[in-house]
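#struct-pred
JK: can someone run the complex with 3DJ? inputs below
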Amino acid sequence: MSEQKLRAKELDAADVLAARRAAFVLDGDGGANGGGTVYLDGNSLGALPAAVPGRIEDVVRRQWGELRIRSWTEEGWWTAPERIGDRIAPLVGAAAGQVVVGDSTSVNVFKAVVGAVRLARLTAGAAGAARDEIVVDATTFPTDGYIAASAARMTGCTLRPVPPSGIPDALGERTAAVLLNHVDYRTGRLHDLPALTAAVHAAGAYAVWDLCHSAGALPVGLDEHGVDLAVGCTYKYLNGGPGAPAYLYVRAELQDRFDSPLPGWNSHAEPFGMRPEYAPAPGALRGRVGTPDILSMLALEAALDVWDGDVTIEEVRAKSLALTDFFLECVEAYVPGGRVECLTPRPHGERGSQIALRCPDAGDVMQRLIGRGVVGDFRHPDVLRFGFTPLYVGFADTERAARVLAEVLAETGA
Ligand SMILES: Cc1ncc(COP(=O)(O)O)c(C=O)c1O
Ligand SMILES: Nc1c(O)cccc1C(=O)C[C@H](N)C(=O)O
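RT: done, C-alpha cells with the ligand placed:
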C-alpha cells in the first residue's frame, strides 16, 4: 500500500465527521474499496441529503395533495423564508432575524446592491458626499458583475471593477457600495472579509458579500465583522438541490432603512391587507418579494437537517483544510512536476474549500476523470476544479481522485 493510501486510512479513521456521509445519497464507499463515484463537485451542486425525498413526498402528497391551501398556515409555508433563514443564520455567523430565503442569488445581488446604494445615499445626505460609484470585485462570478452593472445604470452610479487586493486603495468618498465574493469561484481564493469590510466602512460605504462558495464550508462571521448585506446560494455546500432558493442577509441595524428595489407584496407589513400603498414589513422580511417556491424551499429545509446535532462549522473548516492539504500532497506525490499549476493559495487563511489546477488540456482531462468516476468540473479556459464538501468527502476519496488524475494526465501527455 502506498504511503498516501496508508495516510488516507489513518485520516479517515480519525475523522470526526466521517459518520455524516451516511446522511447523503452517494454511490461508492468513501473510496475505501476504490468503488463508485468520488464526488468533488459539491461547490457546484451539493449531493442529495437522504432526508429530502421523504420530506418532498410528504409536502407534495399530504401538504399539497390533502391539506391544499391550509398548508400556507397549518404547515408553515407562509413563514418558511424567514424560518429557514434562521437555520442558515448560525452557519454564516448571524443572529436570528437577519436572513431571509428566496429567489436566486442573482436577484438577491440586485436587491442588496441597490439597497446598499440607497443606504449610502441616506447617510451621504447628511454628510453631503455624492456616493455615485459601485465597486465590484473584478474577478467576480459573472452574474454579480452583470447585475451590478445594471444596478449602477439604474441608480446613476458608475461601475468600477477592481481586483479584491486593490479595493482598499480604490475606495473614496464617492464609493456607495462594494460587491465582493468571499471565495473566488475559479481559483478557490478566500478573500479577507473582516479587513475588506472594515476598509469599506472606513470609506463610509456599504459592503455586500456573495457567500456562494463559503457558506457551509467555513465560518463567515457576518455579525462579528459588521457585514452590511450578504447573499448566497444554497445548492452548493448547503446541499439544497438544483435551483434551491438563495438568501439575503441584512444587518439588524440597517433593516429599518433597507429600501428594497423589489418591494413585492410578500414584504408588505400587512400582505393580506391588499392595500394600494406599499408599507414595508419590519426585519428581514423586507427582503422578500413574491410567493416563495415552496417545493424547493422545503427541500432545502430538509437538507439543512444534516447540520443538526453536534456538527460545527469550525469542524467542517478543519476537515476542509485537511482534505485540500492532503489532495495537494497526493497531487505532488503522483503528478509529475510542471504538468499542472495550482491556482489555489497554499496559506489556509487564503483558501476556500476547493482546489483549482490549471492545465492546458483541462476540458479533455475532466471528461476522462468523470469517465473514471472522479467528478469535478472544468472552468473555461483551462481550469480543473475540485470541490471538497467535508460532510461527505473522505480522505480515501481524495487519494483516489489524485491518483486517477495522475493516470489521466499521463495518458493525455502535453
Ligand atoms: C459566486 C456566485 N454567485 C452567484 C452564482 C449564481 O447565482 P444564481 O443562483 O442566481 O444562478 C454562482 C453560481 O452559479 C456563484 O458561484
Ligand atoms: N448554478 C449552476 C447551474 O444552475 C448549473 C450549473 C452550474 C451552476 C453553478 O452553480 C456554477 C457555480 N456557481 C460555479 O462556481 O461555477
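RT: quick notes.
The chain has twelve helices and 15 strands.
Residues 105-127 form the longest helix (23 residues).
JK: thanks, will look after standup
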